[in-house]
Design goal:
The protein contains nine helices and 14 strands. With 494 residues, the protein is of the alpha+beta class. The strands form three sheets. Strands 3, 4, 5, 7, 8, 9, 11 and 12 form an eight-stranded mixed β-sheet that branches. Strand 3 and strand 4 form a beta hairpin.
Length: 494
């Protein structure tokens, strides 16, 4: 029996020893994990003790603002107060300071009469309900999620058409709370606001626009809105520039605004002055209009009998001026007053139109004069006058000498090439003589001895003799009047 029991007892003892070893190992593992956990907790709470070269470092005092054991709501006591009411409700007005940093001035629209601006809007106030204890007096910074749980000023943009808070990659909102309860609330906003522009001097104008900030619900008895540092509360980026305008200056103002149904409110103004660049309009509007006016004067040097040339030139300049005026007005609002560019373009249009009327007058008077001369020739033929055709004796002798002008020969058009013989003579005497000096029309016309130089001189003389007096005066009156108008225009608007 004893021999049988001995192996059984040995196996039992072996199993017990194995169990004890396993228990010891599990205990050591748990002890090591507990030690690591305590070290991790000490590291987060600032109570970890480290030893270096056998000496212990002093303990770091705990900072509740950096502790993960305390929730933000518990630290700021958000749940212990009613933040639907302003700070110091029922007491004096709470001062809210404002400063603005203009990031960019995106666009100016003359048609819509508005501007678009991107800016950083910052508010400063004190709310003792948000005060907390901190040994290091450091502030806490939060994003936009906490803004919905506390009171913030209800500032809005007066005369705003569109505005939004940037949300890429998250809402561009920052909230910084100090231990004594002071709060900094900053947000990045793009706003499109109206600007009352005066275009009476366009495009030689300067425009002053303003962005207005005001509390929507709280009157001056509950909220006092002010610029935190006066004119220094407004800062701009030196790289801000516009294609059509030169930004002259930014400045701030403030005043009270009254509403008959609600009362007085503090209103802050961001004012900026813009001066328009003139060079673009000189190239696109003024120079083309001036060239069209000068082109219309070319017709004064064209022969008055060249009807197609002068008419087509006049119509082309009139249509071009109409196109320029239409293009300028298409990019402008439909205002009820006259702009500076309208004065220049319409006066230029009048000059071009008068050049067309000038040729109409020249053509009419020329036609009347030709008709009168034709009647005189017909009357002379009906009275059986000699074939000198109302030409004086001196003029006839000049023609016979061969120094006649082409205009003189043109005035003989329609007459027969017969000799100067009275009709009552017998037919025998009416035969064409062989002597060439009795031929008036063909006298020296077909002569080849005159030469090319004489023909050119006759042609130039013909142009001078056919130039009407109105064209001569127009060559001086039109340019002189237009230059005088330009002197007055640029001296007034520049």
């Amino acid at each position: 029996m004893d021999a049988v029991r001995m192996p059984y007892l040995n196996r039992t003892l072996l199993l017990l020893l194995l169990l004890l070893v396993l228990l010891l190992l599990l205990g050591q593992i748990r002890t090591a994990e507990a030690r690591k956990h305590r070290q991790r907790v000490r590291r987060w709470t600032g109570t970890e003790e480290t030893q270096k070269h056998g000496a212990s470092l002093p303990k770091k005092p705990p900072d509740v603002t950096k502790s993960r054991k305390t929730k933000t709501e518990h630290l700021l006591k958000v749940d212990d107060h009613d933040f639907t009411m302003r700070p110091a409700f029922g007491g004096p007005a709470i001062p809210v300071g404002v400063d603005v940093q203009v990031e960019s001035l995106d666009s100016i629209s003359e048609v819509d009469m508005d501007f678009t601006m991107t800016l950083y809007l910052r508010h400063y106030w004190k709310d003792e309900r948000l005060s907390f204890s901190s040994s290091t007096n450091k502030s806490m910074t939060f994003d936009g999620r906490l803004v919905k749980k506390i009171w913030v000023p209800d500032v809005f943009f007066v005369h705003s058409k569109r505005s939004f808070i940037h949300d890429t990659t998250t809402d561009n909102i920052m909230l910084r709370v100090f231990p004594d309860g002071h709060v900094l609330y900053s947000l990045r906003v793009t706003v499109t606001a109206a600007c009352n522009m005066d275009f009476s001097r366009f495009p030689l104008d300067s425009q002053t626009c303003s962005l207005e900030l005001e509390s929507y619900a709280y009157t001056d008895e509950d909220l006092m809105l002010y610029w935190k540092s006066g004119d220094e509360s407004l800062s701009t980026d030196d790289r801000i520039s516009l294609s059509q305008f030169l930004i002259q200056k930014f400045h701030t103002t403030s005043r009270l605004a009254f509403y008959s149904s609600t009362g007085w409110y503090n209103r802050l103004y961001i004012n900026f002055t813009l001066r328009r660049h003139i060079f673009f309009f000189l190239l696109q509007t003024y120079f083309p209009a001036t060239l069209m006016v000068m082109l219309s004067w070319v017709s004064f040097w064209i022969d008055r009998r060249a009807v197609p040339a002068r008419v087509s030139l006049g119509i082309t300049t009139v249509l071009t001026m109409s196109t320029i005026i239409t293009g300028v007005n298409a990019s402008m609002p439909r205002v009820s007053y006259i702009k500076a560019v309208d004065i220049y373009l319409w006066v230029s249009f009048v000059f071009v139109f008068l050049s067309v009327l000038e040729y109409a007058a020249v053509n009419y008077l020329s036609t009347v004069q030709d008709r009168r001369e034709r009647k005189m020739r017909e009357r002379a033929r009906s009275q059986s006058l000699p074939c000198t055709c109302s030409i004086s004796q001196t003029r006839t002798m000049t023609m016979l000498d061969g120094t006649y002008s082409e205009a003189d020969t043109n005035s003989l058009a329609g007459y027969t090439e017969e000799p100067m013989v009275p009709e009552d003579e017998p037919e025998e005497k009416q035969k064409v003589p062989e002597k060439s000096e009795h031929m008036v029309v063909h006298l020296s016309m077909s002569s080849e001895s005159a030469g090319i130089k004489k023909r050119k001189s006759l042609r130039a003389l013909n142009i001078i003799q056919n130039t009407h007096a109105i064209d001569k005066y127009s060559r001086m009156i039109f340019p002189g009047s237009y230059i005088f108008f330009n002197l007055i225009y640029w001296s007034v608007y520049c």
